[in-house]
């Protein structure tokens, strides 16, 4: 017997089965004679068959209705299990309660630490620390999503995997901590100029954890109660070595091969290769994509009086600290070539050997920051200050680099929502910018390098922003610990790979004020105070390691060092407002032991 059925909604909106046709392939219907006039026809054998067929049809309808009611009882199809618990035939609320009860029975297992191997290091993750959980509502919804045909609901059987959630950001932080010193930072591609000589910085991959891929592995391991292995993977910058070579050959070298003539309605200016090198920048974004551009502000500074004879530069309104209070320095309008057009047109002619001429019109130029806009920023009081000490007095090259960086940053205003970048603000810190050779850490030892000492200013600036409660965006502590800095809460910097950035996450503007003496550098932040206090709480030092002794070839480039112990430590920024702790942020770092470097031949 074959049934051809369709579902129709019943009063409770659950489908039942309606039989629309019945055929009997093994019985041929017989004609029924018409009744004689004036009398009823006599039922014969065919009449009995019709009665029998009608009874069977009724039975089928009744059975179909009963089976449909059974099959569609509850929201979750019968035969559906999650974590071994039968949820079939239940409403969603009942299924959720049953699943909650099963999770409660498994609580000890689900809350147990997960054994994780990251690269070659082993660690344990607490599920709650990385947000591992089973989304009960989403799991029940997945269990309720079944095929509509009643037969599949009657005889089907299936297991539905629970919907597991994890906080990817917290998981990545935990895995990076477990990774320790196995990883390495990505080397961003760049092209930098030393004088008029462009030098490439080739990209190198980061060695790190793949957070997205690790999430799936950790979820599966957590459910199965099994150890998890998270491999380290290489992540390459978007710009390849070949692309850096192409930019070097097609743009950077031709750009400084000859001067460019800038023609305006006020006269002509020759832009020499040295000024081109100052203004041409190759900057990589967060993905490592390298893009050339002309920094017209730096170009103007390099041209100096030559362009100043044709232009009148606008001046932003600013602030200076006088008598312990911010004092407005009025701005002024100017008349300049359009910076956007000049940058675009200059970039177009720099690859050319001939036709190196750019035409620009002088236009009115308003200051970006007017006195009215400055007044709206609410910069009225000092909200933090931090001082570090440096040895050697102002005569040492290292001290002069610290002071130069302080002068470059003094008076900078960071608007609400803006991110301040120290590299972006100062640009390259080279000889042309007033920086000198001084010791810097390269390859795990001190070597002479231009700009050495700027890390001390960076640390001072970092702490001023830290105690102002501003958002930390990017910083990296030193490889070795120096007692002149607060442990963990300090930062190095290196052009162009390492930067220091903070974000003004307040509704008020922030003024950076710097000052110095013969032995100290001070950075203060001025704004509107919104926190009661910002303090640091330290955890104990751990994993203390002693330095080794290393003998170096004596010579002018050899710098000795007394060495220092290595250790790991946590620091917590505790921010209070209205008498309550509103933020508690953890900063962690591990210092390598600094070898004791001796500039001498090793003893026999």
UniProtKB/TrEMBL annotation:
Mind listing the UniProt keywords for this protein, alphabetically? Membrane, Transmembrane, Transmembrane helix
Keyword Membrane set for record: yes
Keyword flag Membrane: yes
Limits of the YoaR-like putative peptidoglycan binding domain: 251-358
Chain ranges passing through the membrane? 51-73
User: What PANTHER family does the record point to?
Assistant: EXPORTED PROTEIN, EXPORTED PROTEIN-RELATED
Name recorded for this polypeptide: VanW family protein
Which taxonomic lineage is given here? Bacteria, Bacillati, Actinomycetota, Actinomycetes, Micromonosporales
